[in-house]
Amino acid sequence: MGRYLFITTSRGMNALRKGPYLLALWLAVFMFSVLPANAEPAIKTETLRLDEKQFNVQFIVTGEASEPFEVELEMPGGTRYTHDQFDGKKVLYLDMEGERRWLINEAPAGEYKLHISGTEQAYRVTIKKELRRPDTAWVSPLGTELTAANEPIQLAWRSQGDYDANDRIRFFLRPAGGWQNMLIGEAQLGDGAASLYLPGTLADGEYELFIIADNKTPDGQHIEPDVTLHVQRGVSYDGIRAVHAIPRGDAIELEFEFPRDLEWTVITASFTDGTGSTFLKHAGRQELSEIEQTERTDMQVLRWLLPLNAGAYKGSFQVVFGDYTMSPVMDIPSFELKMRDWSKDEVKWSIETEKTNARQLQVILKLQAKTHVQIVNGSSGILFDQAVAGGEEAEEQIVSVPLAEGDQIIEVLLADQGGAVKLYSKRYLVDYTPPRLTMIQPLSTHERLEGGLASGFADLDSIIIHNGNEITPDASGYFSIEGVGDSLEISVRDSHGNETSYSWQAAGGGWSKALIVIIVINLLLVGGTVTVILIIRKKNLKQP
Predict the structure, then answer these.
(1) For the chain, which terminal residue's Cβ has fewer other Cβ atoms within 10 angstroms, N or C?
(2) pLDDT at 180 over 60
(3) Distance (Å, whole) CA 126 – CA 122
(4) Which of 244, 242, 246 is nearest to 419 (CA)?
């Protein structure tokens, strides 16, 4: 809206009462002041009417001046399109120099309104003569079966309407039971006849003829002449087949055999689930992985892994060749996917810590159903490979696994009968080497310990145990123990659980075991000697 100036003061209103001249002056000022400061674009509506449905209609609005403007289109049903919001499949808006155009693909009969917004200028509205949409009637072959060898197939049709040299008619074949049309030829729409030559790679089999003729619409005119073509030229692809369909839990692993020298680009598969719903899957050749095999060097086995929901499936597949022709439809073995809730299975490890000096590990299994279990050591191979019972009544299964010194990765692979797979893994750093202990004092040759301070060096990841107390060495491995008396007993334990012990006894600082043994022996000798002397003396006293 414009900005307006109003005189509202009491002094101004009193001045108006003083005479007609002041009133006239006030009216002039008011009329001037209410003019908008910024003029709004003018809006003009033109109404057009079509008496019958037409195609490719153009509503053209031309501005005589060079001022900008826009045009909104209102359809007979009330649908309104603006220059920046419209359905491109139904209408198009063209912004051209000095004019705007609305192009309508299919314009129903009725009243149309063009809402023109812009500065004041003269506008001219015209309707460009509609084009008559081309319409094609198929002539031959029609409603029949044909046998094709090496001779071309003669085709005929009639077209009417406004078509031009750019309009084409295209011929497709669809393999019996298939879901894809392959383009095998085309001609100008206005020719009315053509000789259709079959590609050399087209395999023997049964095909249906399908035609699409240009008709000024995006999809064209689809024609199904009800013609079945039996191709018999000795071309086959017997080497292509689906070998296996292996359930892998929430995916199916499909294995295919192909002649190694066969040139193909895409594989498409159609699947039908237990509810009857059908869906398609596609993959390029590079998306399939090759499985090594030595039985036949002229063949290759390719694997295609497809994630799918649980359920039973039937399937078939086709292969697209380099010239865009396709193989006949071939079956995929039926399969069923069953999902497993792995949270109901338990896998426990007897050793939880990563560092250990154990020579054996126990894997404890409590499974919800019979499962194939494989335990693998990354460095030494398969350690366990067999089925393990499961269920609520089944007891825990304990599997003992040997450990070797070094970095060990132990993997437990569970696979159920439905192909579901679950992997558990754990890393162990196994070390059997006792920790290093280098004493500074007291050494075994020291008779006494000066100052009551024992010290030395140990491995950085170890602890020193003295009288039940744990002592951690510093960053260099150095440690010290205060208040040591005439004896010392310490142990050094590393992070793997290995231990090294050290003991020391001061000279004369107590009774050693060897000294005690010597004293006992001497006492026995002395006691024995005294006893013998006493016995001899006693015998001598008894003699007369």
Answers:
(1) C
(2) yes
(3) 14
(4) 246
22 burial via Cβ count (<10 Å: 0-12, 13-18, 19+): middle
Q: How far from 349 is each of 40, 215, 391, CA to CA, in Å?
A: 81, 72, 20
Task: Please work out, in degrees rounded to the nearest 5, the angle formed at the alpha carbon of residue 385 by the alpha carbons of 384 and 390.
Answer: 100
Token pair 């399937």 in the structure block, residue: 315
pTM more than 0.70: no
User: What phi and psi, each to the nearest 5 degrees, are found at residue 23?
Assistant: -65, -45
Which tokens sit at 230?
């039996």
Any idea what DSSP says for residue 82? B
pLDDT in tens, 317-368: 999 998 888 999 999 999 999 888 899 999 999 999 999 999 999 999 999 9
Classify 135 as helix, strand or coil: strand
- Going by C-alpha positions, the residue among 56, 48, 96, 99 that lies closest to residue 75 is 48
CA gap 183, 180 in Å, rounded: 10
CB 109 within 8 A of CB 51: yes
Edge-to-edge strand ranges of the sheet holding 193-196: 135-140, 153-160, 193-196
C-alpha distance from residue 461 to each of 106, 454, 457 (Å): 83, 20, 12
DSSP tag of 345: -
Residue 215 burial (CB count, 10 A): 20
Cα separation, 60 vs 384, in Å, equals: 82
